[in-house]
Automatic annotation (TrEMBL):
UniProt-listed PANTHER family: HSP70-BINDING PROTEIN 1, PROTEIN FOLDING REGULATOR
Protein's recorded name: HSPA (heat shock 70kDa) binding protein, cytoplasmic cochaperone 1
Low complexity biased stretches: 15-59
MF annotations from Gene Ontology: adenyl-nucleotide exchange factor activity
Length: 420
């Protein structure tokens, strides 16, 4: 037994050089019950050198990986979360941008997928809750309207004071007040893009505040924001359109279109008029009664291309959807005016001018006006069709011009006065 013990003590060397101890290990009474797999058991029993080699490898490889991978990821993910929580989310596109920015700030790519942290999950749930609950938007509208009312009252008082004392207000203070009102109107513009919020805006008395305050302000930046706010709220909203009419707002908007000295104000005011009268028979009737058609023709002669484009669009829409207005426009010389405009230097308004002429040409009196040789419309149409060519940007305008030529060709046997 002493020799066997020496063999076991020196197993790391003697097993490879001296195979003599192996028969002694097989005869040993402690290993007899294991029925002859002793050589295999020796190979399995002696992985002690391998265990000594594996343990340091696991320690060397696992610890550095945990330090290098876990700690930087936590730092990269935590910082964007605190920045995102301060950003307001008012709609689903805004929420999508915010969630996307989390991945972008963390340096992830489109092919990487990782579990959302608890902080990001909580932030996302809060944002979804805000989108589903309109109460926050109502509170914001109330705050914005309250600010506008306060500033409106101050402006009226100071206007009376200046009339008496002839003292000018401090320019810096005036600019600050205007900027506060601009921010309030910008907030309302963003919130009322949601249809339900535009209705709530009217229920809160928002239209009354707009028409008695910023829409009449001395600051053009407030007037054009207020006019745009009316347009956004009134578009496709009968309740809002009725609210504007009940306040006498249509006349206020028409006056801005006709008389305001600021181009942007006139454009936004005409946009509001268009949103109100295009879908409301009551508003359209009032528009015609207030000589709105003549206002549109004057706007077509304005030097502002943007105002001309808005006016041409509304004329085209009214003639297309309200054929009974054709005679009114024809009686005002609209055919001749539009025909002359179509021969001017090409501009965006010409698409709707050509469309309006198509509508007028469907009426016998309008067709006769289009075919007057003095107008020279057919020659102008041929030149314009050639000029537009195959440019997809002006495809609709080209189709209107071609349709006019077809109308003229169909009527040519009965009209010898056409220009050739």
């Amino acid at each position: 037994m002493a020799d066997g013990e020496n063999v076991n003590d020196n197993a790391q060397v003697n097993l490879q050089v001296h195979p003599q101890p192996q028969p002694q290990l097989q005869v040993h009474p402690q290993q007899q019950p294991q029925v002859h797999p002793q050589p295999q058991q020796q190979l399995q029993v002696h992985p002690q050198p391998q265990q000594l080699q594996l343990q340091p490898q696991q320690q060397l490889h696992i610890q550095p990986q945990q330090q290098l991978q876990v700690q930087p990821q936590q730092q990269l993910h935590v910082q964007p979360e605190f920045q995102l929580q301060s950003q307001p989310v008012r709609d689903l596109p805004g929420l999508l941008r915010a969630v996307t920015s989390i991945r972008g700030a963390a340096g992830t790519t489109n092919t990487e997928r990782s579990a959302m942290s608890a902080e990001n999950q909580q932030w996302l749930m809060n944002a979804l809750g805000e989108l589903c609950c309109p109460s926050d938007d109502v509170q914001l509208m109330k705050q914005a309207l309250a600010l506008l009312e306060v500033e409106m009252g101050r402006e009226k008082e100071e206007s009376r004071s200046r009339a008496k004392n002839e003292e000018d207000e401090d320019v810096e203070e005036w600019d600050e007040r205007v900027q506060r009102q601009e921010r309030a109107l910008d907030t309302l513009l963003e919130i009322t893009e949601v249809v339900d919020n535009s209705r709530d805006f009217c229920k809160l008395g928002g239209m009354n505040v707009v028409f008695t305050g910023p829409l009449l302000s001395l600051a053009p930046s407030l007037r054009h924001r207020a006019a745009e706010l009316v347009a956004i709220c009134a578009q496709n909203e009968p309740m809002v359109q009725s609210c504007v009419l009940s306040l006498g707002g249509l006349q206020t908007l028409l006056d801005l279109v006709d008389k305001d000295t600021n181009e942007v104000v006139r454009v936004k005011a005409l946009l509001a008029v268009s949103c109100i009268v295009r879908e409301s028979e009551v508003a359209l009737h009032e528009f015609v009664e207030k000589d709105g058609c003549s206002l549109l023709l004057r706007s077509l002669q304005n030097e502002s291309p943007r105002l001309r484009a808005k006016a041409a669009f509304l004329v085209h829409c009214l003639l297309r959807s309200r054929p009974h207005l054709q005679e009114d426009f024809i009686a005002m010389g609209t055919v001749q005016q539009l025909g002359m405009m179509l021969q001017d230097f090409h501009e965006p308004s010409h698409e709707h001018i050509a469309g309006a002429l198509c509508c007028l040409a469907s009426h016998p009196m309008g067709l006769a006006g289009c075919q007057e040789s003095a107008l020279g419309l057919q020659h102008a149409l041929r030149s314009r069709i050639s000029e537009l060519g195959t440019n997809d940007q002006f495809q609709e305008e080209k189709e209107f011009c071609e349709h006019l030529m077809e109308i003229f060709a169909a009527d040519s046997p009965s009209n010898g006065a056409m220009d050739r």
